[in-house]
Each structure stands twice: as C-alpha cells, then as structure tokens.
Amino acid sequence: MTGDVPPSMSGTCSCYLNGHMYIFGGCDDNGQTNQIYCVDLKDGKYTWRKIIHEVGSAPSPRDKLSCWVHKGRIIYFGGYGHKQLTDTDHRNRSFIVDEASWVGGVFWGWNNEVHVFDPTRASWSEPQTHGRAPAPRAAHASATAGGRGYVCGGRVMETRTSDVHCLDFESWMWSEILPVSSTPVGRSWHTLTAVSDSSLFLFGGLSVDCKPMSDAWLLDVETKKWREVEHPFRNKPRLWHSACPGQDSDVIVFGGSCDYILLIDTGHCNDALVFQTQPYPLIRICEDYIAKNVRDCELLRAQLHLLPTKVLSAVQTRMTFYRPSKKQKH
Question: Domain of life, per the record (predicted)?
Fold first, then answer.
C-alpha cells in the first residue's frame, strides 16, 4: 500500500463505506491519536489518504472506541484517551478520569461521547443526544441494525460489563435494553455483529476475571432475550479480534489473541472462524457439499462442468474456501 500510510497502531476503529475503508483513532508509538485515514478498496491502487477535516472539531485522541455507519456518515462512540483538564466537564460525566494516569494538566480516561464524521464534507459534528447515555467505556462492542446503533459491554473503570444500549439515529435518543433472560458475563475486547434487523451475535472477549472467552450469544432486541449458541470453536477463545457478517447470516471472526495479552502473549491468531447463526438455504447446502467433496470424488469432478454458469462460479468460489491448508498437506 502507498500514499499517506498510517503508522503502526493498535485499538484503532475501522469501517467500510462506499468502497472505502476509514480508520480513526488508535494508539501508536506516541500514544493515542485522533487522525483519520481512508483507502479506496475498489480502484486496485490501495493508496492511503490522510483526511484533513474542513468543518468542525475532531474528537480528542482515543483508542479502543467503536463506530456505526448510517446514511453515508460514520458515528463514533466512546473509547479511552486523554484530554486537557480545561476540556473536561465534570458536570455531565461524559469523561471519567483514570486516577492512575495523568501528567500535569493532561488526564487519561474513558468517555461516552458521540461524534459524527461526514466524508463528503470532511466535517466533524457532535450531536446533542437525549435519554440516559451509557457509562463512559472502552474496548466495548457495537453494531448497526434497523437504523439504530447498539453498544454492548466494555471496560468501565475497573470493571467489565455486559449491558446493552441503543441509540436511535433519527432522534439521537439513548435507551437501555434490559434483558428478560440469562445474560453473558461482563466482558471487554469482544465483538457484536448484526445478523438481521433485530438479532445481534456476540462472541469472545475478556471476562470480568480476565479469562479469555469462547462463548457465543444471540440477542433478540425485540424480545430482549439472550440465547447462548452452540458452536464448534469452544477450544478457540478470542479477544481483541474482528468480526463481520458473511453470506446467509454467517459471522466471520478473524485475528485477535487467545491470551490475556497484557500478562502473556503466546502469539496472535490468523485463522478465520465461520459461525452459522441460522439454517442454510438448500442451494448453500448443495454448494458446500460439492465444494467440500469434489477433490475426493471422481464422479463430482466429472460432472462439475454440467452446472449452470452462475452455480459453477459459486461452487468454484466455495472450493477455494475448502482447499487443504499447508498443515493438512504435510
């Protein structure tokens, strides 16, 4: 990649919008940053561009924040970072100072601020929200579903939570979802992925007692019920990983660590975990069966060319997913 390549960072926040990936915030060798970069993922050039905003004021430097994408704009929430003492307002409790981290007039801490970036105008704005906002937090998870943004868990001072809050993007009204079922344990560094307009998938994270987690849950935001999901990756805990929706409501998890990385780090993970959240349609089942077995079945190989063009293309794409890994070959 070329252009204004961002420095190496952790805890940055990224999203995809109109063919571009945007990254904001994060922590580099000099601490938290509030720079924003973008790269066109469709022109084949992969050239980074550092965005200099033209309107409004950028948020203070921060990392471990989250974002939502709605109607061509990127909405950022929360995180951990530093502010000048003169920029903190103790009255509205939007910034909680980390008592263990301050130098002179600069204080580090958690926030619950909402900032909106409009790429078409290169503008920052801070909408006036209503209702009871979530407590300031970082390393939480968020997802967009049905015109609303959801926040789940994260670190709030010295504890980790599993509370769920919803922000309506039309009225900017906050509300808390109070579950009527058993709930996941409090955690941070987990992921939350929308698999429908009313269903959110939670995976992994670091628990209240600093245990790497491998459990998965589905939340129905309409019935307010959590349901734990059985899956084949119980032996693969993940924290600080990434997740995105896939085909047929799959959730794809990549990267992260399987340890409490602040104490021990035996290496980061580079395998992709694919979670099925609902029954597959018949065409998907057939494509998967052919792709998984075609290399070992001469009859399937001989008849592969008889498939309609679109179906053949889909099967060939699935075959690359099921190809043997280097470990399997040896």
Answer: Eukaryota
Fill in the DSSP letter of residue 29: T
How many CB atoms are located within 10 Å of the residue 96 CB?
19
pLDDT 10s digits, 54-83: 999 999 999 999 999 999 999 999 999 999
Structure tokens at 145: 């579903």
E strands, 169-271, where?
A: 174-177, 187-188, 191-194, 199-207, 212-220, 225-229, 242-245, 251-254
Using the predicted structure, report yes or no on whether residue 166 has a pLDDT greater than 50: yes
pLDDT digits (tens, 9 = 90+) for 206-226: 999 999 999 999 999 999 999
Cα gap 107→88, rounded to integer Å = 9
Q: What is the distance between the alpha carbons of residues 99 and 82, in angstroms, rounded to a whole number?
A: 12
DSSP state of 239: B
pLDDT tens-digit map of 15-45: 999 999 999 999 999 999 999 999 999 999 9
DSSP string, 270-308: --EEEE--SPPPHHHHHHHHHHHHGGG-HHHHHHGGGS-
Rounded to whole angstroms, the Cα distance separating 168 from 147 reads 7
Predicted confidence (pLDDT) per residue in 299-315, tens digit: 999 999 999 999 999 99
Question: Can you tell me the distance from the alpha carbon of 153 to that of 326, in angstroms, rounded to the nearest whole number?
Answer: 38
Quick one: DSSP state of residue 33? Answer: B
Measured CA to CA, the distance from residue 121 to residue 117 in angstroms comes to 9
